[in-house]
Amino acid sequence: MKATDSDLSDWLLALPKVELHVHLEGSIQPRTLLRLARRRGVELPADDEEGLAEWFRFRDFEHFVDIYLTCSRCLRDPEDFQLIARDFIAEQARQNIFHSEVHFTIGTHLQNGCNGQEVREALWETVCEGEREHGVTVRWIPDIVRNISPRWADRTVEWALAGTDHGVVALGLAGIEKGFSVEPFREHFTAAAAAGLHCVAHAGEHDGPGSIRAVLELCRAERIGHGVRAIEDPDLVQELASRGIPVEVCPSSNVCLGVFEDLSQHTFDRLHRAGVAVSVHSDDPPLFSTTLTDEYRRLAETFGYRRSDLSRFARRALQHAFLEDAARRRAEARFDAVEE
């Protein structure tokens, strides 16, 4: 049966899910931002949830950056990070997202004067608490930001390497693609890999296939965040497919940020049919008026995917998660228990 029946949303909510591309700072809900702003004396464009929800309605990329940086300015002390992490974990549990690998731009917070060690310990305490209370796991991917001074890339790698026993599983690369080379960060990723961390990178979103090739070569990226413009280079598509390189796709984010005019034009289905290992993610859910569950539903409605297709996408995210063997086997059992 096609996944267009009236109970699809309920089925998707119950489907075990893994999320590999979501940003902690971009997951702050308006109600939580209000609380943080009042706590830290940060002026917002509105002083109630309704007004903030309207402000969160995406207008353009500059508006997106403004919200993201405002959220970051409201995060100063360890308890602030614990608040947003608890909210995030509870929401993942509500959606049956039992494992998440979460991007976190620690460099921005270090620039803002936060104590990196205290933040790391506070986040790990909250992750352990969330696993006990909700049965979900969270691991961290601290991001280097391409368009910020390499000094903060150095600090990001230091934070990542010090956090391998506090849930850090990979080093990431984010920031503005166009006009900012990956070359200055080659050694950062080499150091991370030598210490046993995985490497992932945003690429092929606001820049073309060359951006993807650069992170594959210079960062040795094991997963590509977004990667949707790979379709512009058939040879690259074939390479991604033949090498089994995962592409983390965030459909609503790509539409909101102007990569595609609407979801019907999105390259997800073409990449999938070409054999690329695409999986589904939410990126910054409140900022794009979505959830991971919504992303699956929207893809089903747009491309006519069946429940078996959606379940396959969910399993693929698990396949490419940075999990140890025992945890992976337990996770696979969750899917095996679900009747399609």
Walkthrough of the structure:
It is globular, with a radius of gyration of 19 Å. Strand 5 (198-203), helix 10 (209-218) and strand 6 (223-226) form a beta-alpha-beta unit. The chain has an 8-stranded parallel sheet. The chain has helices at 8-14, 30-40, 49-55, 61-73, 78-94, 106-111, 116-134, 150-161, 186-194, 209-218, 234-243, 251-256, 268-273, 292-303, 307-319, 325-336, and strands at residues 17-23, 97-104, 137-145, 170-174, 198-203, 223-226, 247-249, 278-280. It has one domain (8-322): TIM Barrel (Alpha-Beta Barrel). Helix 1 crosses helix 14 (292-303). With 340 residues, the chain is an alpha/beta fold. The mean pLDDT is 94.
List key phrases describing it.
8-stranded parallel β-sheet; TIM Barrel; alpha/beta; 340 residues; globular
Summarize the structure.
This protein has an eight-stranded parallel sheet. It has 340 residues and is an alpha/beta fold.
Question: Helix and strand layout, with pairings?
Answer:
Layout: H1 8-14, E1 17-23, H2 30-40, H3 49-55, H4 61-73, H5 78-94, E2 97-104, H6 106-111, H7 116-134, E3 137-145, H8 150-161, E4 170-174, H9 186-194, E5 198-203, H10 209-218, E6 223-226, H11 234-243, E7 247-249, H12 251-256, H13 268-273, E8 278-280, H14 292-303, H15 307-319, H16 325-336
Parallel strand pairs: 1-2, 2-3, 3-4, 4-5, 5-6, 6-7, 7-8
Helix pairs in contact: 1-14, 5-7, 8-9, 15-16
